[in-house]
Design brief:
The protein is an alpha+beta fold. It has 2 domains: 3-338, BirA Bifunctional Protein, domain 2; 349-443, Anticodon-binding domain (Rossmann fold). It is built from 14 helices and 23 strands. A hairpin with a 2-residue loop joins strand 1 (32-36) and strand 2. The radius of gyration is 24 Å and the shape is globular. It binds '5'-O-(N-(L-prolyl)-sulfamoyl)adenosine (P5A).
């Protein structure tokens, strides 16, 4: 992409309405624009990162054996009356009437709809286990939409649903999700800690939230600092392996880590004092096991091995895809702007031409652009006739992890400069070396 043709409406001033850094930076970097309270348009740069995050979620879900599908955003109220949640959901549900005066709603979650699909098409235990998921817009009429995409009213969520014959199988699905979520967040450069939580309107007893520690987080959390030493890394996982998933789940959930809803002071006090932490966190996902809550209410049964009908055991699992942009920025920024982790960066490398119009500098930039593109990487080339200072400020604000600076003076010595956004370190090298270096970095990312 060439900056001269890009739609990147960066703001020079800090927007007054933004109370936290991620919201401020998303507005300033021209990623989103509020359309009404808690509802945003995703401008090209923001949309690009949203898609990157979505891609990682899809990949990791499918590695775990889950099947993508898509359900509508507007649903009939009838199914929700069957489960009893039409009244329970309260004012958070956006209720709509169609021209025939029928009650419709904008989906805040999809347990009912997926259970209806399941009961219409699955009748035998032989078709289990089954896990379906979608990435789709949701609407919750939050009392206090705030912090930009962090607490929106319209937001993008990955929601998955498992159907199993027994509780034991459903708990394996739970563990499998926990493991695949750990991997998903790590690929985005995030440490998200599973914490025992409350299930709220989704229901069930077993539930974990995934929290990214950040001062601006809305949840108060209590944990044993030893949980922050755990990393998933690149272990080989067989998602069908019940024992392996169980043991990873235990590794990550045995130490004390709870949100304030389930916090137990007496248990917390058993953690050695020097490891007890109270902090704030951003909830980027939650997994649930709720047994037969929906299958009983909606009569979702299969024929068991003995020929008798049994209600299926279910769980659901959510990732806040749009919220993740905010969480990543909260975890990775400095006073100049965003610092994208390599896994989700909108463009892999920025090219800054210090002297647009200089024949040699232009040619060197074009060559770099061509080579990155040929290597399957996406460069963002600042080809505007602007001062170098302004170009650097924009690059720092939008936060690409790597920048190549090209100017006539360096080119006289055959070199350009490769700069890391994170460390600020710059190294001179030939353009060919710079391409090779950046290619290497992303091959390993
Ligand atoms: C699990 C999937 C559910 O809705 N039903 C289907 C279950 N869980 S949840 O915890 O309520 O939501 C899942 C994740 O969605 C994100 N989220 C939000 N993101 C932005 N703005 C909001 N208003 C909002 N509400 C929920 C969170 O990341 C949450 O973990």
């Amino acid at each position: 992409m060439r900056m001269s043709r890009y739609f990147l409406p960066v703001l020079k001033e800090d927007p007054a309405e933004a109370a936290i850094v991620s919201h401020r930076l998303m507005l300033r970097a021209g990623m989103i624009k509020q359309s009404s309270a808690g509802i945003y348009s995703w401008l090209p740069m923001g949309y690009k990162v949203l898609r990157k995050i979505e891609d990682i979620v899809h990949e990791e879900q499918q590695k775990a054996g889950h099947m993508p599908m898509l359900m509508p955003t507007i649903q009939s109220a009838d199914l929700w009356r069957e489960s009893g949640r039409y009244d329970d959901y309260g004012e958070e549900m956006l209720r709509i009437k169609d021209r025939h005066d029928r009650d419709m709603l904008f989906t805040p979650t999809a347990e009912e709809l997926i259970t209806d699909i399941f009961r219409s098409h699955v009748s035998s235990y032989k078709d289990l286990p089954l896990t379906l998921y979608q990435i789709q817009w949701k609407f919750r009429d939050e009392r206090r939409p705030r912090f930009g995409v962090m607490r929106g009213r319209e937001f993008y969520m990955k929601d998955g649903y498992n159907f199993d014959l027994t509780k034991e199988d459903a708990l394996h699905a739970y563990n499998r999700h926990l493991v695949s979520y750990l991997r998903t967040y790590e690929r985005m450069g995030l440490q998200a800690i599973p914490m025992r939580a409350d299930s709220g309107p989704i229901g069930g007893d077993d539930t974990h939230e995934f929290l990214v520690l950040a001062d601006t987080g809305e949840s108060e959390v209590f944990y044993d600092s030893a949980v922050t030493d755990l990393t998933f890394g690149d272990r080989e996982i067989d998602f069908d392996d019940v024992d392996q998933c169980q043991s990873i789940m235990e590794e990550f959930t045995t130490k004390y880590a709870r949100t304030d809803e389930t916090h137990d002071e007496a248990l917390f006090n058993e953690v050695p004092e020097e490891r007890r932490r109270t902090a704030r966190g951003i909830e980027v996902g939650q997994i649930f096991y709720f047994g037969t809550k929906y299958s009983d209410a909606m009569n979702a049964k299969v024929q068991g091995p003995d020929g008798k009908p049994v209600a299926v055991h279910m769980g659901s699992h959510g990732i806040g895809v749009s919220r993740l942009l905010g969480a990543i920025i909260e975890a990775s920024h400095d006073d100049k702007g965003i610092i994208w982790p390599e896994g989700v960066t909108p463009y892999h490398v920025g090219i800054v031409n210090l002297k647009q119009g200089d024949e040699e500098a232009d040619a060197a930039c074009e060559q770099l652009y061509k080579e990155f593109t040929a290597a399957g990487l996406e460069p963002l080339y600042d080809d505007r006739k602007e001062r170098a200072g302004g170009k650097f400020a924009t690059m720092d604000l939008i936060g690409l992890p790597w920048r190549i600076t090209v100017g006539p003076r360096g080119l006289k010595n055959g070199v350009v400069e490769l700069t890391s956004r994170k460390t600020g370190e710059s190294t001179e090298m030939t353009p060919a070396e710079a391409v090779a270096r950046v290619k290497d970095i992303y091959a390993g990312a």
